[in-house]
Structures are given as C-alpha cells and as structure tokens.
C-alpha cells in the first residue's frame, strides 16, 4: 500500500471519528503500584536473609538460592533412586 493510500485512509478514519463523535481512547497511567506487586528489600527465609534492590536479587541472594536448589535437586535424586537401588540389591541377594 502506497503512502498516498495510507494518508487517504487515515484522513477518512479521522473524518469518520469527527462525524460520529468517537472519542479517542487515552491510556490512564498512575504512579501508585499495588502493594501486592512490590518486592520487599529484605526477606527472611530458612536459607537466610534474601536481599533485593528494585525487585532484583543481589549476587549473594542468587548464590544462596542456586545453592539451595542444587541441594534440593540432589536430595530429590537420591531419594527417588534409593528405593530402586534397594530393590535391585534385594533381588540380587535372593537365591
């Protein structure tokens, strides 16, 4: 579509809006942020105090969370494979 066609279509649309009294929709903005969306600067947890600045975690917080996730996943892997290893060992001991 050429620039002249776009201009003509825009002009027709604007004229139609004026003729039919259609008001332009204006976005409403507010500076208030709901309290449920605000991240606190410090959160006390069982792995220690997690610190945030403007919602972004500090390097120490990232390290704590990653270490905790690594431990949790390792423990989960151990617990999920323990039963299978035990059953395998039992079956090999039977005559």
Cα Rg? 31 Å
The backbone outline, from C-alpha atoms, is: elongated
Query: What order do the strands of the largest sheet run in, or round the barrel if closed?
Result: 1-2-3
> Are there runs of 5+ residues with pLDDT below 50, and where?
none
In whole angstroms, the N-to-C terminal distance is 84 Å
Any idea how many domains? 1
Helix/strand/pairing category: alpha+beta
- Average pLDDT confidence is 80
Q: Report the β-strand fraction as a percent range.
A: 5-15%
What does this structure look like?
There is one protein chain. With 95 residues, this protein is of the alpha+beta class. 56% of the residues lie in helices and 13% in strands. The protein has 2 helices and 3 strands; from the N terminus they run αβββα. The protein has helices at 3-20, 59-93, and strands at residues 42-45, 48-53, 56-57. The longest helix has 35 residues, at 59-93. It is elongated, with a radius of gyration of 31 Å. It starts with a helix and ends with a helix. The model has no long low-confidence stretch (mean pLDDT 80).
């Amino acid at each position: 579509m050429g620039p002249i066609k776009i201009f003509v279509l825009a002009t027709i649309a604007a004229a139609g809006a004026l003729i039919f009294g259609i008001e332009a929709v204006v976005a409403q903005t507010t500076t208030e942020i709901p309290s449920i969306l605000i991240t606190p600067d410090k959160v006390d947890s069982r792995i220690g105090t997690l610190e945030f600045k403007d919602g972004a975690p500090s390097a120490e917080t990232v390290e704590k969370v990653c270490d905790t996730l690594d431990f949790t996943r390792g423990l989960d892997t151990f617990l999920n494979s323990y039963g299978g290893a035990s059953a395998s060992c039992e079956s090999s001991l039977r005559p």
